[in-house]
Specification:
The protein has 668 residues and is an alpha/beta fold. It is built from 24 helices and 27 strands. The strands form six sheets. An eight-stranded parallel beta sheet has the order 8-15-16-17-18-19-20-21. Helix 5 packs across helix 9. The longest helix has 18 residues, at 267-284. The protein is globular. 48% of the residues are buried.
Length: 668
């Protein structure tokens, strides 16, 4: 066996390119120098063996089955400490062989063959049952990377518990940032203070003599409230019944009539938003994102061409961009990822209704105490024609549907547009359902893109807004799977936190975010009392499947992603402790909340390593950009002073002119 030593690696990194002098290697050639280093290292390490590991293995990994039935019922387990191993072909970025050291002669022979084939061996040193483990690459099946990066710039309002607190936050932020032309915030939730929406008068009062426009997004991003300075009354905004003037509330489609004025137009700034958000996804433990972003294809292509994508990006474009693509800024036809590419665009998204929190989700029966049944964005005929046009162009369909009336309309439209089950149309959210609708989803081959953390956020108030008989078929992920519907897990970040381990916890426990115990047995007893529909709680294996096999199936990649198995992409995550235990074991509950991501590998390359002194920061270095860019909108974190660039680099942030853009994802 030929093994590349650490000295060999160091020599490869230190050696200058043969066709350039040292003087020629200026700072403008940093990227190409990095490419050369990577190529030389790859030449030395063509077959990489990781051994003494604890690997997660699905029970059907040996068959690597791709049938829907086996995918929706597979379970798994960890190998014994020190027993697992995998051989990675670094030139192809795939697992060449995977196994478990055992007394079995066949397994032992396979391990010996892998040792002989390896050109470098890494001891993962996973020797105890409580120590680090390796999980398959984690996939977020519904996220908004662009909004994530942008939201880190905004005034954060998720902690406001009264209207007066919201007003005080707006006033303080306005005084802190007198040079900003717009004051923008995100995260308010009227249910936190009894249900009254903020109004333009509330914002006018908060701003006082300051006449700058103010726009505040609700936590769901489906509603904004604006002050008088920001208002021009288009269709779709709320009008006061007495005065006849706008209240300041914009709903659904009307939101864009005001937010178009505050959207960042500078591509250099937007690129920094994207890079910062992607880096946060990486640090959260994600290896793939299925992201819905506006006007983003050209930015992602640029990042990929510069080798600045740290993980896989499956871009979903909005139907209006697909429909009005006069400048070809979005692909006219699906763009499939090549074997070496991390980027593809194969899906088009439509909206059918709003959100539950805003009471715009379309329901079959009224919200409790009202005659309101929400709103449909499109008629059945309009939705069917839009679906038909995208399907005819070869795109996979994704449709936002939260309420049961919206879900029924989407299923009717898919059937009317003759979208076959093999096309795997994705319905995102699926929060309020019905027995008949779950059966239809199964036989129409629909993939349910669900957000487990929505249960933990919404269960605080959903029981007061939905009739009891409707609650019984809401957020019922386990029932969906039992009926044969493939489910994929996502965060909808920045609406929720992008950490997949948090999503797995919420799928297993269904406890309100505010009630998540931080320690002690009393806290765990409280959780068991407040779990929403406890019969719908998933096991760890079922919850992990949402973020691996389910996510891969949603993007037609179940033969490449979601498993640590031969022939699959070498995407995996190293977690610092065992998080795989039964739902009711206290230590396992603590583990999911407290676990840290140690390493993230994508395509056989370690993209993040937080272990030891040799922490890799390939994609986490600070970017100090010159030029007339806007300053950071949030300033220092509450209770912290201004951080220096080196501190920001250590936290994996991107900065503009030494101003922070944010430190993590923006959940509730």
């Amino acid at each position: 066996m030929l093994e590349a030593s650490d000295d060999d690696i160091a020599s490869a990194a230190a050696a200058p390119p043969s066709d350039k002098t040292t003087d020629q290697r200026s700072t403008t050639l940093v990227e190409s120098t990095h490419d050369i280093v990577r190529e030389r290292i790859t030449d030395l390490i063509r077959m990489l063996l990781l051994h003494n590991a604890r690997l997660w293995q699905w029970d059907d990994d040996s068959a690597a089955s791709s049938s829907s039935s086996s995918l929706s019922s597979s379970s798994g387990r960890l190998t014994q400490p020190e027993a697992g191993w995998c051989l990675i072909d670094t030139t192809k970025g795939i697992f060449d062989a995977v196994g478990c050291v055992a007394d079995d002669d066949e397994e032992h022979a396979a391990y010996k063959a892998a040792q002989a084939k390896a050109t470098r061996i890494i001891d993962m040193n996973m020797k105890c049952a409580e120590g680090s483990i390796i999980l398959p690459g984690l996939i977020d099946a519904h996220i908004h990377v662009g909004y994530m990066g942008e939201a880190q710039e905004y005034l954060q309002l998720s902690g406001c518990r009264t209207l007066s607190e919201l007003g005080a936050a707006v006033a303080a932020y306005g005084k802190m940032h007198p040079s900003k032309s717009w004051v923008v915030g995100v995260g308010w939730d009227q249910s936190a203070w009894g249900g009254d929406y903020p109004s333009r008068q509330d914002l006018d009062k908060a701003m006082g003599d300051d006449k700058r426009p103010v726009v505040l997004y609700r936590a769901c991003w489906h509603i904004v409230v604006a002050n008088t300075a920001a208002l021009e009354p288009p269709a779709g905004i709320d009008i006061d019944a007495i005065s006849g003037f706008p209240t300041g509330i914009f709903r659904e489609n009307a939101v864009s009539s005001i937010t178009d004025h505050i959207a960042e137009a500078d591509d250099d700034v937007r690129e920094t938003y994207f890079r910062n958000a992607l880096n946060q996804c990486l640090r959260a433990g994600l290896t793939s994102v299925q992201t819905n972003d506006s006007n983003a294809w050209h930015l992602y292509r640029k990042l990929e061409s510069q080798q600045k994508l740290p993980l896989r990006v499956f871009l979903t474009v909005n139907h209006d961009e697909f429909e009005s693509n006069v400048n070809h800024s979005q692909p006219l036809h699906p763009s499939f990822a090549s074997p070496s590419s991390l980027l593809s665009c194969e899906r088009v998204k439509l909206y059918s209704d709003g959100s539950l929190g805003a009471e715009t989700a379309a329901l079959r029966s009224p919200y409790v105490g009202t005659t309101n049944t929400g709103m449909l964005i499109h008629t059945l005929e309009e939705l069917r024609e839009k679906i038909k046009s995208a399907h005819k162009a070869g795109f996979q369909l994704e449709v936002h549907a939260i309420g049961n009336r919206a879900l029924e309309t989407v299923l009717d439209a898919l059937e009317g547009a003759e979208v076959p089950s093999g096309a795997r149309p994705v319905i995102t959210h699926c929060q309020v359902m019905g027995e008949d609708l779950m059966e239809r989803m199964a036989w129409q081959g629909v993939v349910a893109s669900i957000q487990p953390s929505f249960v933990s956020t919404d269960c605080k108030w959903v029981q007061a807004r939905l009739p009891v008989e409707v609650q019984r078929v809401s957020y019922c992920w386990k029932s969906l799977g039992e009926r044969g519907v493939m489910c994929a897990g996502g965060s909808d970040a920045p609406v929720e936190d992008c950490r997949p381990l948090g999503g797995i916890y919420d799928a297993m426990h269904r406890v309100p975010h505010a009630g998540k115990p931080r320690g002690g047995k009393e806290g765990w007893r409280e959780e068991r009392e407040v779990a929403f529909l406890p019969e719908e709680c998933l096991s760890f294996s079922e919850a992990l499947r949402l973020y691996t096999i389910g996510g891969a199936y949603a993007c037609h990649a179940e033969r490449k992603l979601g498993r640590i198995a031969p022939g699959y992409q070498a995407d995996f995550v190293v977690i610092d402790r065992d998080v795989t235990g039964p739902r009711r074991e206290e230590d396992c509950r603590h583990a999911l909340l407290e676990a840290a991501v140690e390493q993230v590998w994508v395509g056989g390359v370690c993209r993040l390593d937080t272990k030891g002194e040799n922490e890799r920061k390939v994609f986490a270095s600070a970017a100090i950009l010159g030029g007339p860019f806007i300053p950071g909108k949030n300033g220092p974190l509450r209770g912290q002073g201004r951080k220096q660039p080196q501190q920001l680099e250590e936290e994996g942030m991107w900065v503009l002119q030494n101003k922070r853009l944010g430190a993590g994802c923006c959940g509730h």
